[in-house]
Amino acid sequence: MVEGLGWGIGLTVLSTFVGAVGALFLKFSISRKKGYHSSLISPYLCGGLLFYGLSALLFVFALRFGDLSFLYPFAALSYVWVAFLSVYFLQERITSYRWLGILFIMMGIILLGWGATI
Question: Do residues 25 and 45 touch, judged by C-beta distance below 8 A?
């Protein structure tokens, strides 16, 4: 399943980013001070669910180009995307220990990429 593996990796990375945007939308949906009932009909909730669905579809399509055991660990990129999006859009503070964890995730993904024969 090496042919097209670059497409599989690219689609998986895109899938993780789209899923992270979905998580951001879900956070926006619940962060409004209107109560839980209005959060359930929020456009942000609908958008978050839509992004999650699109993320899943992109990942399913990515699986056509690579093994699950190789592509699935790239899903850890979601943590990286969420951290950056949270800092930028939610003004969250990320501790040095979290940044260290993100660095380890990135190192693991780089090792996986080097192990692939594209």
Answer: yes
State how many domains the chain has.
1
H helix or E strand, kind and range, residue 91:
none
pTM: 0.86
Distance of CA 50 to the CA centre of its chain: 14
C-alpha 18/C-alpha 10 separation (Å) is: 12
What DSSP character marks residue 66?
S
Q: Give the ranges where the chain is alpha helix by DSSP (H).
A: 5-31, 36-40, 43-62, 68-71, 77-90, 96-115
Residues of the chain with pLDDT > 70: what percent?
Answer: 88
Whole domain around residue 53: which residue ranges? 5-115
Give mean pLDDT, residues 15-23.
98
